Prior knowledge:
By secondary structure, the chain is mainly alpha-helical. The chain has one domain (2-429). The chain contains 15 helices and no strands. It has helices at residues 2-56, 58-63, 69-93, 100-125, 129-153, 160-180, 182-186, 197-231, 234-248, 251-266, 271-297, 301-308, 315-341, 346-398, 409-429. Helix 1 (2-56) packs across helix 3 (69-93), helix 8 (197-231) crosses helix 14 and helix 13 crosses helix 14. The radius of gyration is 21 Å and the shape is globular. It starts with a helix and ends with a helix.
Amino acid sequence: MFNKILNTFGTRIAAAILNFLIAVVISQTLGDVGKGVQSLMLTTITFILIFAEIVCGESVVFLASRHSFSKIAIPSFLWALLISVLMGAGLLLFPQELGSDIVVHVAILSFLASASAINFRFLVGKEEIKKANYNTLLQPVLIILTVLVYYVALKKEDIYGYIIALYLAYGCTFLLGVWMLRDEYRQLRLFQLREYREVLADLFKYGFLNQTGHFVQFFNLRLSYYLLYAYMDEGRVGVYSNAVSLAEAIWIVSNSIALVQYARIANANDRAYSQKLTLELGKICLLVSACAVVVLALLPAAVYQFVFGPEFGEMAGVIRILAPGVLLYCIFLILGHYYSGIGRYQMNTFAALCGLVATCVLGFTLIPRFDIRGAALTASVAYAVNALFLFVFFLREARFKCRDFLLTRQELRQYVEECKQYLTKTETHE
């Protein structure tokens, strides 16, 4: 299991570096306004995916070992297509910050992203973590290559270079996923409608519970983007989104651990084992994340101006405000995947609702007055509320003693030794 975590971590570090380069290219080429438009577009795709993943989201991981591939895949693809069409049409009917031509692209890209994610989740559900990681890494590789050609080689300056990059990334990762799951796709077949009833009931049951939490969490994490756009302009969204992206990169550690943790817990039946595993992984996650947060918070404004452009100097102060909440949110990610793994998705929803209350109360109060620093303070408090809610319930349920939450020397030595073994094994294969 530890090897899978390290493989996931390495893959996500590589993806984060590539995503960082993507942000640099777009910021330097299109400025803060262009970066703001790109962030709003990507956020809208994420919003559509929340509804698509009611059926084809994390519930696919949970149910992959409980139902046949055909009974899950076909309803998932059909639902993703339906949601993309309906949400795209809905966006065209109401005034919004993106033009109608971009909205059409957003709808199509949402379906391609859902299709790629379905394959990814089947791989995770089968505990094929390395294959899932390689599939994920292909996306930022294709995006950075495309934007470099479009913006640097061809010297164009519009958002369509990024749109083309997304088409290539989502389309190719979907095809790669089909190839990785080729044995399952060869056996793909239609059943009579009555034979889908049980799996549809499970998909909607677990998916609705999980996505309710994601829906609430989306506004918890991204409402500030829309408030900044409403009270300020796209440029402020661009600066803030870059700061958030860098701060949230700290979650690579948590998400790498949580991916393997979720797959393991979803396939386990021992609650005590799942709780102990969650505690052990949570401790190492916090240690590594804390080191990363300190490094990021110490970077001066001049670094961000040099990397992204002269408009982005305020990122340094914003990241320092975000830092405490970002670190605490690592707890939420680990505990949230524990509750998802045992099928109690409602716990994540309740935690997200608490965070959303903080976001709404503080966001509408602080953002108009303090601009992006108000948005950062709002987010930091909301992150902390999310984490504390789940931590209190986990503490009451698991009944660990205070000393159990301390990272011991023995555990540190164990992690270091496993890292050495993994690196030695990797070098031997090379």
